[in-house]
């Protein structure tokens, strides 16, 4: 009878050890090797090439996303769409738009006012609900 209890006890110990191993979190060897490298490993393994000023001024270096592709060439300004040149223009803040009369706002400014005003009201409502 004592022998049966020992076998049962041994089975429980092995079962607990196996259960603990199921919940162990392991990492691949590749993740540990990349851990010390700056920038993710693969990019830092390749030697850095020096580019001439001529190549830098005629191509968009680093814009290629394809394996077999090449970096695109820089085109003259006339080849790009008009909207591209207005992407970095400063737009009016909500406080500026609130000071102006809505009847005198352009369509784009009116759309921006509505969007920013709705966003501000939603944030205010959320903060009031969070305090309750």
Automatic annotation (TrEMBL):
<keyword id="KW-0809">Transit peptide</keyword>
<protein>
    <recommendedName>
        <fullName>Large ribosomal subunit protein mL54</fullName>
    </recommendedName>
</protein>
<keyword id="KW-0687">Ribonucleoprotein</keyword>
<dbReference type="InterPro" id="IPR013870">
    <property type="entry name" value="Ribosomal_mL54"/>
</dbReference>
<comment type="similarity">
    <text>Belongs to the mitochondrion-specific ribosomal protein mL54 family.</text>
</comment>
<feature type="region of interest" description="Disordered">
    <location>
        <begin position="32"/>
        <end position="51"/>
    </location>
</feature>
<keyword id="KW-0689">Ribosomal protein</keyword>
<dbReference type="GO" id="GO:0003735">
    <property type="term" value="F:structural constituent of ribosome"/>
</dbReference>
<dbReference type="Pfam" id="PF08561">
    <property type="entry name" value="Ribosomal_L37"/>
</dbReference>
<keyword id="KW-0496">Mitochondrion</keyword>
<dbReference type="GO" id="GO:0005762">
    <property type="term" value="C:mitochondrial large ribosomal subunit"/>
</dbReference>
